């Protein structure tokens, strides 16, 4: 087997480790909802808006960092992202007003973009062989979920000993450790001459004139809505709506004695289940039509979300829902990024996937912000949850007409 045909290359390993750390920290923000609101006496909507702005800035920054990586090099994009991420977290620890926290989350969001999926998956995709690309993207996505497994529980543990401000500073230092893995990204396979045929402007313009690209763009909205809401609000939702944990039960025996602790564990279980889900999605994407796999994933999400809210919320249903949703959580990412690479080529995959991811983050902004605003208005999360069920069904349908075939790009005009 040739070196280029190997699945576990240094690029895949390094990129996966960066995503693991990135998402460990990002997945923990929901745990801070109640501590920050209680510390300052803020309504739930204030910190929800901060997280929503973070997600929107992440989405806006994704095509920018994708273009920066493709113009100037992946390392520079990742270095800039890591320092923005770190500075945003540390400065947030010293903010004392909602507006201050919300403005600083713009910096955090751009930092997440520079060290997140848009840049890293493009690096991994270009370095992987054709036969391994879909699975490699699935493994890198699963690494992000692996970070989610311990991110929220780590925040919960640290909050037992430190103020939330100190935890933010600790996290700001941790994100800088991603820079240690940059040398591993230098051995990736460069793009082939065939992928260099058209300029960035031609490729992006052609993609936005393609109905299939617009359908992929619109369909990714619901993924962001559901993931944004659950990451930011599910721990608080469980804390307030879940039935009691039996003192002599299995959960109590594992040390999970409060609904708050169960909320952090639920985020961890989602990440744990998605390690398998993302890898399986990447493996299936190599063998089956990606658009139908995406439609199936969104359908199953819709059914799972509706079933959860229609039944009494108990510790058992929380665990079952977390495992089911976890298996579907980021399974859309290797399929969506692989679909973009297959249709539009590898050369500007980071930029194009960055634009698609912007739709994801617009949805995430809506899920996080609406979660907080509608909670303050109605006193519960029921309406925002049902909106998520509806947009999930929309995404299942809109992927069906996508034309899954390579789009021939024009050659650059002669000088």
Report on this structure:
- The chain is mainly α and 415 residues long.
- It is built from 17 helices and no strands.
- It has helices spanning 10-26, 33-40, 44-72, 74-92, 98-114, 117-127, 133-159, 164-174, 200-208, 211-241, 250-253, 259-285, 290-310, 315-328, 332-344, 349-378, 382-398.
- It is globular, with a radius of gyration of 20 Å.
Descriptive key words:
415 residues; 17 helices; mainly alpha
Topology record:
Blueprint: H1 10-26, H2 33-40, H3 44-72, H4 74-92, H5 98-114, H6 117-127, H7 133-159, H8 164-174, H9 200-208, H10 211-241, H11 250-253, H12 259-285, H13 290-310, H14 315-328, H15 332-344, H16 349-378, H17 382-398
Strand percentage? under 5%
Shape: globular
Total number of beta strands: 0
Share in helix: over 70%
- What's the SSE pattern? HHHHHHHHHHHHHHHHH
Would you tell me the structural class of the helices and strands?
mainly alpha
Instruction: Enumerate the spans where pLDDT stays under 50 for 5 or more consecutive residues.
Output: 187-197
Please count the helical segments: 17
Q: What is the first-to-last residue Cα distance?
A: 41 Å
Q: How much is the average pLDDT? A: 85
Major sheet description = none
* Computed Rg: 20 Å
